[in-house]
Structures are given as C-alpha cells and as structure tokens.
Amino acid sequence: MIEGLDRLLEGSGQPGLVELRASLHELFSGPEATGRLIDPQRLKARVYRLRFEVGGRVRTLVAKCLAPSRAKRNELVAQRWLPAIGLGQNGPPLLGVAADRSGQFVWHIYEDLGDWTLDRGDVDPRRVAAAVGLIAQLHTRFAEHALLVEGRLYGDDRGIYFYTSNVRDAIRGLESLRQPEIELSPQQLAVRDRSLERMYALLDEQPQRAQAMAELGGPETLLHGDLWTTNTFVIPGTGGLHARLIDWDHAGVGPAAYDLSTFLLRFVIQHRLWIVDLYREAGGPHGWHLPSAQDLNLLFDTAECARYANSVIWPVIAFLEHRAEWAFDMLAEVEQWFQRLEPVLPV
CB burial class (10 A; 0-12, 13-18, 19+) of residue 241? Predict the structure, then answer.
C-alpha cells in the first residue's frame, strides 16, 4: 500500500477525496504497490503537487479539482483535439480522472512538468522560439478543422461574439444598478456611470471591430484561451527543447489574435515585435499570414476590451445578489485597466 494515501488532503475540505485516492491507487498499479506519500504542496486553491516514493523512486504528480465542464474541456484537449493534429505530446500530460459522487467536481491527475515555465523574468530567445513555434503549430494545424465544432460546443467562442456578448451583458448589469431600487453612494454611482459610458462606447464600436475581425482576423482555429507564460512550459531534453501548453480551462474557437495578445502582454513592449516575427516565421510555411502591426493592434485591442468587459459583469452580479462590498472596488480597478490600455505592439 501507499502509506499516507488514505489520508491524502485530509482536513483540506476538498470534495471527491475518496475518488481521488482510488484513482491514485489505480495509477500506482493497485493496492499491491508499496511506497509513501511524501509532502503534498498546495499550488493554488484547488491544485496540489503530490510527491510519492514508490518502488524506491520519487514520482511527482499534480492533482487539480475542476468543474465538470472545464474538466471535459481539458480532457478533450489532451486526449482528442491535440492528438488529432499531431500535438498529443505538447499538451497537458493527463494520467487519470476522478469524479466525485455528487457530479459537481472532477479531479484531474497530471504528470508534474517541473519548474520549466516561461514565467521567469528573463527572455531566452531559444525558449521563447520553442513556445511560439508550438503556438503557431496549434493555430495553423487546427485552422478550419472539422473538430472546431467540438471546440465551440465544449469550449468558448472567442470571436466577435465574445466581444459583443460581454459588452451587452456588462451594460445590462450596470443598468440594473439604478436608484431607488439599488441604493448607491455618490462614489459608487460615479463608478457605475463611468463604466456604463465606456461600455456604450464599446458597443458603438462593435460594427467597425466586427468588420476588422472578419477582414483581418484570419480563419477560425482552436485557441488556448488563457495563454499566459505560466501555462507555457519549455522543457530541455536529449532531443532539444520541448514545449507544452497546460491549463486549457478557457479553450475555445476564434481568431489567433486572441491568443497572441494574451501571450505578448506577458512580455515588456520592447520584446513583442521580435516575438511576433517568430510567429510569422513559424506560420509562413503553412500559408499563415499576419496583418500589419497596426492592424494587429486593433485585433488585440478588441480581445483585451472583451476581456475587460467580462470583468465588469461578475462584480455587478455579486453586488446585485449579495451586496458584496468589494464589487465597486473591482469596477474601479477595471476602469483603471481601460485607462492604462495601450497598443500591444509599438508602431
């Protein structure tokens, strides 16, 4: 038996621990396996690094608790979508799945990839090139692929619909914060009015942005949806550098610019043009062409404004339902995001 496994995450309050422990037992070849749990480490709210000594070897896994819809999305990425385009070894190394009895949560068990993310502060051109090459392969190989229908069904639509729906939903929520039904302080009312004015301005811009996306955005493709450098691994090996993308919770379908803007904004502005050039070079042999930097900036701005508009929706709902005190602080913070929003690429 694996010593300590029957008490894994005991007292953590996490759901589905019985099912998680059973799945780990199966992963270690059943109850006959011998070893011990060394030291579980909490990485995020529902993400844990688990170290085991089994058969004289140390093995490290990552267990992540997900909502069923996101668990399904990640499972399809790892076991169906990426393998369909020859990138099965470049996604999350999923080893096991365990759903709790209520059906409300699902545990994923992954091989631990170590500390090889791009999020290290330095910009190593070789490592960045390996990551950008993988991103370009993902976009070019999945462009207009038949499985995009599944990406839209189980994922999100990140095209102009994402922009339009978030802006409209933000307006609908902000309009609900009206006196006398909702009592607001003068400061709260001012934040609401400024946010509402901005959302209506974005709604007025929707036709021009939709036309630009249709003309410049290129074909629809599979998107990671949350392409931070912390989700990008570049791992050294005997055959060179090997890139992987993890945490596909926000995967969906849309123009490549949606992913590119997220990725580029993780780097200081003086590095972004040569990173875009790497992407152009990687996609060129596949007939993948990007518009000019100025046109890209418009596509990037649309993606960022859509994400910011989405961030308006949830504090509004929290205030309407629970009078959450933090809601207007969050709205004020989003307002500052808009004020600081600048072109992603220098022109």
Answer: middle
